[in-house]
């Protein structure tokens, strides 16, 4: 179980009680937060995760790439009443095997803010130094930011990434 008491998921069985072994799951728990946006909800990420979501679901796609509001709204769970003030989070697990050790470069591209956290020390939170891997916060136009994380031990690492829209254009 992850830090929020939710089950790990795979496309075949969305409510496994333990993370799958020997395979990478492309499933993520997705939550939408209608009329909730801004940097203070994404850092620390628990500010957003403690809000009751307006929708929940399981994302099983291969890439998170939404070119506009319409494309995003069509696949998200729940209702988003306006296209300019909302947040979305995706939670899952990175399964790092012995062949995956080393430095990874991860990134987000968003308009407005986005973040990517990894619970590197497996203590159930995302507040320790180095767990905010990508910091793309701010009310800004389309912007890409990358960060690096080094894995020295194989394991199952909980992660969450999120973004918010707070008016203006889109990527």
Structural notes for this entry:
This protein is mostly beta strands. It has three helices and eight strands; from the N terminus they run βααβαββββββ. Mean pLDDT is 80; it is low at 1-24.
SSE layout and pairings?
Layout: E1 28-34, H1 39-42, H2 46-49, E2 55-59, H3 69-75, E3 86-96, E4 102-110, E5 114-118, E6 132-136, E7 143-151, E8 155-165
Antiparallel strand pairs: 1-2, 1-3, 3-8, 4-7, 5-6, 5-8
Task: Spell out the key features of this protein.
two-stranded antiparallel sheet, 6-stranded antiparallel beta sheet, 171 residues, 36% strand, mainly beta, 3 helices, 9% helix
Widest sheet, order of strands: 2-1-3-8-5-6
Q: Alpha-carbon distance between the termini?
A: 34 Å
Q: Pick out the low-confidence regions.
A: 1-24
Radius of gyration: 15 Å
What is the count of DSSP helices, taking H or I runs of 4+ residues?
Answer: 3
Global shape: globular
Derived structural class: mainly beta
Estimated helix fraction? under 10%
Mean pLDDT reading: 80
Number of distinct beta strands: 8
What characterizes the major β-sheet?
6 strands, antiparallel
Order of helices and strands: EHHEHEEEEEE
Give the strand content: 35-45%
